[in-house]
Design brief:
The structure is a homodimer of 320-residue chains. By secondary structure, chain A is α/β, with parallel strands linked by helices. Chain A has helices spanning 2-9, 12-22, 35-41, 59-68, 72-77, 86-98, 112-120, 132-146, 157-173, 188-200, 216-223, 247-254, 263-277, 287-293, 296-299, and strands spanning 31-32, 44-49, 79-82, 102-107, 124-128, 149-150, 179-183, 205-211, 255-261, 303-308. In chain A, the strands form two sheets. The first copy, chain A, has a six-stranded mixed sheet, with helices on both faces. Chain A has a four-stranded parallel sheet with strand order 5-4-3-6, sandwiched between helices. In chain A, helix 4 (59-68) crosses helix 6 (86-98) and helix 9 (157-173) packs across helix 10 (188-200).
Chain lengths: 320, 320
């Protein structure tokens, strides 16, 4: 029964309905190109700029869909998540836009700027200790005490569908794309993009770009089971997360391949994006361009979409 | 006779013709907004993003128009300018697009990255000593030896008209703007914008934003004659230039006022633009937002256009 439901949620019609549902709350973000980057790579690249999305990242899409899918009685009790990154801010802003209460669990040692951002978007900040057990336990406490619904940042079918709408918009405007490349962290964006490419592309393959030092998705695809990371030391902090049982089967079935990217390659391609596209993006965005730069032969003359996932960076801590 | 010609060039129809002439060579750049910046300022601001212009700055507009206005026999001998900044790159790329030779005079101690950029756009780099006399003499030598036409970066009617097309595009999309704010350097952008606001705005005033340490335009408006700067020490290096006899009369007649901005205000507003708009812009762009931030009462609830003039920054030398 559960599996059956899961299948239905991931239909083409559900992706269309999801998109229509969230449209009033999100931007259809612009797509930009650069002759210089095309010359540099030998490919034809279309950058879908979700750094210009509300609150600065694609996470706004999935967070909005997940809240809108709740029945009214659940909406009344609010939503809760644990995230010190973009999803916490996204859930806070999405909840505020929809008129729902959001509780965001964050370690007390999280950067002050991120705490301020969550509160700025109207979220109630709940501090916890800086470990997985504490943040999960704290979130569960809110679920119990407030009746709030827990929303996972990436391993949730409604979140996955929402994240897929960036790729859907991209393919609606550029239906000739042969590849779409997304970064891989928790797996929500790439799973949603793979569904969008399947339903809205014309023979369009989705490729993941993942930091080598946290390559759980690459290894999971090889082994056929969800692998974990032994380190968290990547500059692409948004990708320092784990695949889940809801997005992994989609990735297994629908994703072409995953390309691993070194830390130096991440910084180099981030600099190229800033210099050539004149946009501010997170280190977590840049593996996708790095994947093209290190596989020029494979991507030669190919028409490629790249999802720029977010633009929330600390300008005082740039790697260049 | 000369004055009569000048007058004709600055007609509304000439601005329209100029825009039509350069359209195939330039981007109609996007306009973006930020709820957060609007909340912060109390105004309603529309940012016209010429950092996304070809070669990364509005200078592409004026350079293109100046070359296209040359008769065929002059085009054959090429164009020459002295500029270590965006205008040199703009003239090189515009010339290349049109199929004309460009000679760019630059001090031999100019940053290597700027020399490479000019050559990358197909310009012939002519090095000179690092002083005004040497660069002017070197440019004049090229005029004599090659028959090339000298094009001034800002004090040229065709350049002024071309620069005005950014504001024209902005007002065509947002005709309700009450103010347009531009940075003031050599005076080409603000003079062109003032003409565009006069011809295409509905009671729209143009205000200049100028670094306090190089406030020649502010002082020139006060004294009624062209003043000079005694220092060049502004982080907004693109604004470290001098008004000229062609743009000053337009500025005198058509510009509402000039607001002076401190170096700290330039850096602070640059950071706000990067963080909130998620775009890479030059320090020379940010005085315009700073002008609003320091005059919140005056600009309260006003609908304001701000021209983001360029995005060519050295990421290794950021002020934050």
């Amino acid at each position: 029964m559960k599996n059956k439901m899961k299948k239905i949620v991931m239909d083409k019609s559900n992706l269309i309905e999801c998109h229509n549902r969230i449209k009033p709350y999100i931007h259809n973000t612009p797509v930009i190109t650069s002759t210089q980057i095309n010359n540099m790579t030998g490919a034809e690249i279309y950058f879908k700029c979700d750094n210009f999305q509300k609150m600065g990242a694609f996470k706004m899409r999935g967070a909005t869909n997940a809240i809108l899918q709740l029945p009214e009685n659940k909406k009344r009790n609010g939503v809760v998540t644990h995230s010190s990154g973009n999803f916490g801010q996204a859930l806070a802003l999405a909840a505020k836009s929809i008129g729902v209460k959001a509780y965001i669990v964050m370690p007390s040692n999280a950067p002050e700027i991120k705490k301020i951002a969550v509160k700025g978007y109207g979220g109630e900040l709940i501090e916890c200790e800086s470990n997985v057990e504490s943040r999960e336990a704290t979130a569960q406490e809110i679920v119990k005490s407030k009746g709030a619904t827990f929303i996972h940042p990436s391993n949730d079918n409604d979140v996955i569908l929402g994240q897929g709408t960036a790729c859907k918009e991209l393919l609606e405007d550029y239906n000739f794309l042969e590849y779409v490349i997304t970064p891989v962290g928790g797996g929500g964006l790439i799973a949603g993009s793979a569904l969008a490419a399947k339903y809205f592309g014309q023979n369009c393959s989705v490729i993941g770009a993942e930091p080598s030092v946290v390559d759980d998705a690459y290894r999971s695809l090889k082994s056929g089971k969800i692998e974990t990371n032994s380190t968290t030391k990547t500059i692409a902090d948004g990708l320092n997360t784990q695949l889940g049982d809801k997005n992994f089967p989609i990735i297994q079935k629908e994703v072409h391949s995953i390309i691993r990217i070194t830390e130096d390659e991440i910084i180099e391609s981030m600099k190229i994006i800033w210099e050539r596209l004149k946009i501010v993006c997170e280190p977590s965005c840049s593996p996708s361009l790095a994947a093209v730069l290190k596989n020029k032969k494979f991507f030669n003359k190919k028409k490629i979409g790249i999802i720029i996932s977010g633009g929330n960076v600390d300008l005082n801590k740039l790697p260049f």
